[in-house]
Amino acid sequence: MQFGTIYNAELLRRLRSRAFVIGLIFGGLGVALVTRLPSLIESMQLGAIRSIAVAGPPSLVVPAKQLLHENGGFSVRIVPLSSVAPSQETLRRWHVGSLLLLSEKKQHLNVSIYTTDPENVTLSTIRGPLLPLDVSLRTHRPPTAVRRDLYFPITVHSVTARFVNAAQSAAAHAVAYLLLFLLYMLIVFNSQLVLTSVAEEKTSRVAEVLVATVNLPTLLAAKILASTTLAALQMATWIVIGGLLSSSGTGATGPALAVGSTSFSAVTLETLVGFLVFFALGFSQMSVIFAGAGSLVNRTEDLGAVSGPLFIPVIVAFMLAIMTLANPEAPFAVVCSFVPVLSPFVMFARIAVSSVPLGQVLGACAIDLACVILFAIAGGRLYRLGMLLYGRAPSWPQIVRAAFTR
């Protein structure tokens, strides 16, 4: 009865709060930004990066234009040598990112590249498409014939049952990026709300009434469950927004930019269950830690100093998870999969893009669940200590004794 009353009151209070509404709106905008911005940036960048001008003898620039377009995916514009004056203003006037000056020297193709950004046009992106033209100059054979001779088939075979082809793998990586971003936002935002809620109650003298009338472990559990409910509501809202926007994406290259073009149909049942399970475990761990820390705050001005260090493990976990997407079986990824606080992020990243043995998943869940229980016990004791020591900050010896002794 007491638990239900506190839960309903906390849920309604937080649901109507300005912070929750603002967080829900700006979180949705953040998801929309992460979902659509990469493809928009890519489309704007590729317009200049993939547009190049070539100049030189007609015997070179005509086949070069075809090779660069068909083999390199470039949009090529032929400009006469007489009008070539390589400068940033010239490239802007031609609406291209680079200029290629072609010439023949000792039966070899000679290429000079003038570009606004050398990183945009690497040697490999130009040498590969133009290789048939260079061989043609030495063998006196048509570039098309050389290109045909240089072609050889390459077939990619997946040794796992997880991904059939590269497109499916790219889609899974894109969804994993987005879900990791959601996981990070949900844990950070709602843990901060738990910290703020506990600190506000204590500093507004509500704690005096609560300590006298309510069982403190019950109060803490009701607060965390209310926060979990609101986090689930936010998660559902943001996933719907991301799903609607991603289904109308326009295409991208590479997992980091594929978010904007990936449909949520790429989410497998295994990925969805892993996300929900590790979200619950990660959020529970951080909530009890933030609640315990919030009860030690006597002034709202101290919230930043208290919450700052607590966010560091979450930020580190998020960065490690992003690295794990590139190499899910790396030793650091496997080890971090079983480290509390890091595990919900890193293990989920591994589940999303690889086939993780069931024993490892269950082992990580068991460790995280045990840590939730231990954190809850220690956090509950800190919560009780902070509430009972109303009006004065506890000393470090008191905090240590409260966390590790009954």
Q: What features would you describe in this structure?
A:
This protein has helices spanning 2-16, 18-49, 58-72, 88-94, 123-139, 143-150, 166-203, 206-213, 216-246, 269-294, 303-326, 331-336, 343-353, 358-388, 396-404; strands at 51-55, 75-78, 98-105, 108-115. The chain has 406 residues and is of the alpha/beta class. A hairpin with a 2-residue loop joins strand 3 and strand 4 (108-115). Helix 10 (269-294) runs antiparallel to helix 11 and helix 10 (269-294) runs antiparallel to helix 13 (343-353). It is elongated, with a radius of gyration of 29 Å. The model is unreliable at 44-48 and 250-263 (pLDDT under 50).
Shape: elongated
Order of strands, widest sheet: 2-1-3-4
Strand content: 5-15%
Q: Total strand count, please? A: 4
Q: Mean of residue pLDDT? A: 77
Order of helices and strands: HHEHEHEEHHHHHHHHHHH
Largest sheet: 4 strands, mixed
Backbone structural class: alpha/beta
- Number of helical elements: 15
The domain count comes to 2
Uncertain regions spanning at least 5 consecutive residues: 44-48, 250-263
Q: What is the helix content?
A: 55-70%
Give the radius of gyration: 29 Å
Q: How far is the N terminus from the C terminus?
A: 26 Å
What oligomeric assembly is this protein in? single chain
